[in-house]
Each structure stands twice: as structure tokens, then as C-alpha cells.
Write a structure and sequence with these properties.
348 residues, alpha/beta, 7-stranded mixed β-sheet, binds zinc ion
């Protein structure tokens, strides 16, 4: 495809956005004109993104019209069953065992194996940071309470929180994900945050990779604020447009995921939105292994766009790939502003 103007979808299914949806500025400091949706089979046409010259967020300047957005989720994966090779299954099984032992210990269910695993992941600290984030830091804030997960996917997180004494409820737009989560014996509603009764109150709300998917992120944050008790916690995570990964991989960066990611934030813009909505404090957490995950995923996308003519070229590319992924992980561990993912905790 040579033409940047080839739209991935019929024109009437899409809309152009020429001002930043967050700060209304028309200044653009960077743009991507050839974004490919790798989940559409086969990929066809391009999406476009601007980076706002004023607040620095990325927003799709050619995006699906709200009415047609469900077409972008036909091949989505939140409800998929675990697949993969035998070694992948073994690694997943081992990770599950370590994670459950970690949660038991963090949730004050002490066992010998829990002590050993907890000590191990604190020594191998990127793994410890990864488990902290996977458990959405719930053990750090309070022991139990009422918890709402918006965009709960297959309900894995809610099941863990429920096992540790939290009263949990989840919502998700994806009917297949709702069915899988319900099969775990959880209370799950089909839809967005607006299906929750406005009189309900929660101690903890989580938005795990949700805010980048919505058309009106400020409204979502304000709804979370209204549903939280005083002193309650909003936990959210989203790809960071200021990350070193985006600077390195550009249109092949995994965090872009067009056209499902409508807006991509940086720390300053997201923190400001939270404080403007009434939250009294915002804290950034460190995520372990996200450089490895985002690096490997982005390398996978990059490999779809280049080819190697010889084994030597293939070998060299593998070495460069390894160096890039390791660098990404080190930088994201050391530099708060350049992390691959923004993991923020806001207190009402
Ligand atoms: Zn802006």
C-alpha cells in the first residue's frame, strides 16, 4: 500500500479528529500516518494518530465512529482460552503457582512456600514489581472492602481479590468475556461503568488498560470519583506515549494498538486529569517486566514489516532485538517518565 490516505474502513464508519480531545488544542508536534491494525485479517489500510503539541497525549486523528467501534473488537482476546506450545503452558503454570503463593503471603495467609516465594520475588525484584502490579497493589492499601473492576475481561483479577476477602463486582462490554468471568462464580454486568447504580459505593476501583479505549476519558474518571468512598482508591494502568518504547518502535510500538486505543496518555496529562476530577493525590507505581513484554510484542510487529535474506541477517537481528528488549526493561525500571506503562494510584 503506497497511499497514506487509504482508510482501513469504509469512510462512513470513521471520523476525523483535528483537535486534541483532552485540551482542545489544534497544535500537533508529531503524527503517525501509517498505523496498521494487526488484529484485522488481513490488515488493510491505515489509521492515523496525532501527538498533541500542547498536552502531549496521542489521539487517533482517523478513528472509528462510536457507532461502529464494536467492529474493532471482533478478534479481541480478553476472553480467549489459554493457547500455545507445551513450554508456554509450563511457564504459565509455573507463573500461576508463584503468583498465587505471592498473593497468599501478601494477603496474610502465611505458609512456608509463600514465605519462600515472597522472598524469591523480592530478590528477583522485576518479578516482584510485576506481581505487585498484576495484583493491582490491593494488598498495599487495605485488607478488604468493596471493589469494582471496570473492563474486567475474563475476571482473573476479581477471582483472586474475591478469594482474599474482597466483595467484588465487574463490568465489561465484551459479552464473551462476561460469560467467562461469570463462570468463575463472580457478579459481572454487561456494559460500561454507567450500568452500576449511582448509589453504590466502592473502596477500590480499577481501570486496567481501559482508559485508552474510551472516547471520553474525563467522564470515566469523574464516574469513578463519584462511585468511590472518601479515602477510596482508583488504580489505573495504560500505555505511556512518553515511553522509550514508542520513541524506539514508533508505528510498531505495541502500545498504539489502532484503532482500539483512541487516546494515549503521558504522566503529566493523566495526573492533571485525575486532580482536576477531585482526587487529592496521585502516585506512580513501578511495573516490572513491562519493558520485556512491550519490547517483545513490538519486535513481533516490527518483524511483520521487514524480512531477512540470510541466516546471518536473521541472527544479527535476533541479537539486536535482545539488546533492545533488555535496554527497554532497564530504562523503564530506572526512569519514571519513560516507563512503558503508566501505573497510577489516585486517592479520593
Ligand atoms: Zn492536548
Amino acid at each position: 500500500m503506497e497511499n497514506d490516505d487509504v482508510s482501513a474502513w469504509p469512510v462512513e464508519w470513521t471520523e476525523e479528529v483535528n483537535i486534541c480531545p483532552l485540551c482542545n488544542s489544534d497544535s500537533v508536534c508529531n503524527h503517525e500516518n501509517r498505523l496498521i491494525d494487526w488484529l484485522s485479517v488481513p490488515p488493510s489500510g491505515y489509521w492515523r494518530m496525532n501527538v498533541c503539541g500542547s498536552c502531549g497525549v496521542g489521539y487517533l486523528s482517523l478513528r472509528p465512529a462510536v457507532k461502529y467501534i464494536q467492529n474493532a473488537y471482533k478478534n479481541y482476546y480478553t476472553h480467549s482460552k489459554n493457547k500455545g506450545s507445551l513450554i508456554n503452558k509450563y511457564l504459565r503454570g509455573m507463573q500461576k503457582y508463584l503468583y498465587e503463593a505471592f498473593c497468599d503471603h501478601a494477603g496474610h495467609n502465611y505458609t512456608v512456600s509463600g514465605y519462600l516465594v515472597y522472598a524469591l520475588v523480592r530478590i528477583v525484584f522485576p518479578l516482584g514489581l510485576y506481581f505487585d502490579t498484576k495484583s493491582r497493589h490491593i494488598f498495599k492499601f487495605r485488607n478488604t472492602g468493596r471493589l469494582l473492576d471496570v473492563g474486567c475481561g475474563n475476571g482473573e483479577f476479581l477471582e483472586m481479590a474475591s478469594r482474599h476477602g474482597w466483595e467484588v463486582i465487574g463490568v465489561d462490554f465484551d459479552q464473551a468475556a462476561v460469560s467467562v468471568a461469570k463462570s468463575r462464580g463472580l457478579i459481572i454486568l454487561h456494559g460500561g461503568i454507567d450500568v452500576i447504580d449511582s448509589n453504590e459505593k466502592f473502596d477500590f476501583i480499577s481501570l486496567n488498560h481501559v482508559i485508552e479505549h474510551v472516547y471520553d476519558p474525563l467522564k470515566l474518571i469523574q464516574s469513578c470519583y463519584a462511585l468511590l468512598n472518601d479515602g477510596g482508591t482508583l488504580w489505573l494502568e495504560t500505555p505511556n506515549i512518553d515511553s522509550i518504547g514508542y520513541a524506539l518502535y514508533k508505528s510498531n510500538w505495541r502500545g498504539l494498538e489502532p484503532p482500539r486505543h483512541i487516546m494515549l496518555f503521558n504522566k503529566a496529562a493523566l495526573s492533571e486529569m485525575l486532580l482536576k476530577s477531585g482526587f487529592v493525590s496521585v502516585e506512580q507505581k513501578s511495573h516490572g517486566l513491562s519493558g520485556v513484554y512491550m519490547g517483545l510484542s513490538s519486535e513481533g510487529l516490527l518483524n511483520k514489516t521487514v524480512s531477512c535474506s540470510s541466516m546471518a541477517c536473521f541472527g544479527l537481528r535476533k541479537i539486536i532485538m535482545l539488546l533492545r528488549v533488555i535496554s527497554l526493561e532497564l530504562i523503564q525500571l530506572l526512569c519514571k517518565k519513560r516507563k512503558e506503562l503508566l501505573t497510577l494510584v489516585a486517592t479520593r
